[in-house]
Amino acid sequence: MKTALLLLAVLAMAAGPARALRCHVCSSSSNCEKAQTCAASARYCRTRTKVEPLRGNLVEKDCVEACTPMHSLPGQVSSGAAATLCCQDDLCNWSLQSSAPARTLRPGAGLGLALALGLLALLALLVGPSL
């Protein structure tokens, strides 16, 4: 039993924590770049741009859990164009154009999930018979 628990602990340490996404996080009237490590829950780097003819340009970059790409065209003189770009690679939101398509899983996420499920199955086998 102690050997199995030691093996479980070694496997958990070898897996290490999930690597956090890095995105540019800033707000400016032009393209801005300020790298930051995102929270573990953030899966996307997002860039939102707004072009307001009467108020000027606004570029906002951040880390988000969910992101929906969007493009809108001006409808009136006071309403400008807007766009939301989403990507999932480190520092992929450096440009005001989409630099990488969004993927469903980050690299290594499948391996981490498989390892976690394997560890849970091993733990269930070890603890199950003693219940």
From TrEMBL:
The organism's place on the tree of life at top rank: Eukaryota
Domain UPAR/Ly6: from-to ranges: 21-106
Keywords: Cell membrane, Glycoprotein, GPI-anchor, Lipoprotein, Membrane, Signal, Transmembrane, Transmembrane helix
Family matches, as Pfam families: Toxin_TOLIP
Phylogenetic placement of the source organism: Eukaryota, Metazoa, Chordata, Craniata, Vertebrata
Keyword Cell membrane in record: yes
Gene3D superfamilies named in the record: CD59 (2.10.60.10)
Membrane topology type: Lipid-anchor; GPI-anchor
InterPro entries: CD59_antigen_CS, LY6_UPA_recep-like, Ly6D, Snake_toxin-like_sf, Toxin/TOLIP
Record protein name field: Lymphocyte antigen 6D
Transmembrane segments: 108-128
Single GO cellular component term: cell surface
Signal peptide: 1-20
Main location: membrane
Organism: Enhydra lutris kenyoni
Gene Ontology BP term (one): lymphocyte differentiation
Localisation per UniProt entry: Cell membrane; Membrane
Coiled coil stretches, renumbered: none
